[in-house]
Amino acid sequence: MSNKHEIEEELAAAESRLATLCKSENEDQFSGGETVTIQPTCGDEMQSLREECSQLRIILEAMEASED
User: Fold this and answer.
1) Residue 53 near residue 44 (C-beta atoms within 8 A)
2) How many CA atoms lie within 13 A of 2 on its CB side?
3) What is the pLDDT of residue 32?
């Protein structure tokens, strides 16, 4: 089992990657002046990262609860 610090680092990295993908999607969407049909190019990876972040937060919450 990873220690709390390692899990926090994993969470920060996943959140950073997710933010980068979201920003990338937004920039691609608004790069032209025409009406655009939104077609996510990183949807699966973004969903996977959201799930990973959620699971890591749950683990951290459980660790914090066990310390009390």
Assistant:
1) no
2) 11
3) 56
Q: How confident is the model at residue 40 (pLDDT cuts 50, 70, 90)?
A: low
Residue type, 12: A
Question: Encoding tokens for residue 21?
Answer: 């993908």
| Both structure tokens of 2 | 């990873």
CB 57 within 8 A of CB 11: yes
- Contacts of 17-23 with C-beta under 8 Å, sequence gap 24+, read 17/49, 18/46, 18/49, 18/50, 18/53, 21/45, 21/46, 21/49, 22/46
CB 22 within 8 A of CB 40: no
**Which residues are within 8 A (CB) of 40 and not within 5 positions of it... i.e. 6 or more apart?**
25, 46
- Residue 68 is predicted with a pLDDT of 74
pLDDT given for residue 42 in this prediction: 76
